[in-house]
# Entry
Amino acid sequence: MNPNQASAPLASANLLPELDLKVYARILWHWSWLLLLCTLLAGGAAYVASTLSAPIYQATTTLLIDEARNPTASYQDLLTSERIARTYAELMQRDSTLAQVAQQFNTELAVLQDALTSIDVTPVRDTQLIKIVVEGLSPELVAAVADTLPQVFIAEIGAVQTQRFADSKKNLEQQLASLRSQVELKQVEVDEIGQSRTAEEEVRLGQLRSELTQAQNSYANILRSYEELRLTELQSVDSVVIVEKAKIATAPIRPRPLVNTLLAAIVGAMLALGVIFLIEYLDDRIKTPQDLQQILDTPLLGVIAHMPHAATKGKAQNS
# Structure
């Protein structure tokens, strides 16, 4: 067996990647005008659209939920904290809360919503923080809304939490006022009985002192219950604190003409490449010797070159 014949297929196999690269390069060079045109059109359209779009500004406020919790907190308490943060985040996005914010600016809710593009209230994972992100057309407005929204919510949630204990406190206060009056009346009756008293007055004095002591004990018990209720209220009410106020943005967050132009140009080039290779795949015409070799699966013996300049020169000499 001739070594040259054995090495021939190997050499042909090694030339295949090079031939493929040449084919791809030829295709790209042939369609370079389309590739460049699509890239420029897509990038130019994105640049024009970005420059004509209204600028959008963003402001962020951070809240801390100072939840009243048991010193011996468990894993369940941590889950409760996360649920409270999610609940507060949902409540702050209600239309009723936004309507109160609009009242702070002496405007209607619809007008405020038209000036804002989005309000996103998100609890920070594994923390007691909530971030309020407001986006809109005016940097001053979005910063003001980002600061006013938590203030309105804090006042609202404080009123709701205080109302939970209002009825019980009012009932105890009424009992304290009644017992205080009884103590004062019994004390006046005791004082009216002088030092020189009859046996009947002595019995009456003992009865009054017993009733006075009972009223004082009842008053002390109710007062203790009242103070315990107030302490429970303080321990169970969650406080929402603004830890970072919004800052007025100096530059819009979007549109970003340069980034949009680059991305659109890349997408345009990719679409152009897809169209080019699709056209080449559907084109079954024989253009090169390699195309003929692939179709017939036979080696090429020779190629007749096309030399139009030489043919023209020969005709001129004959004439």
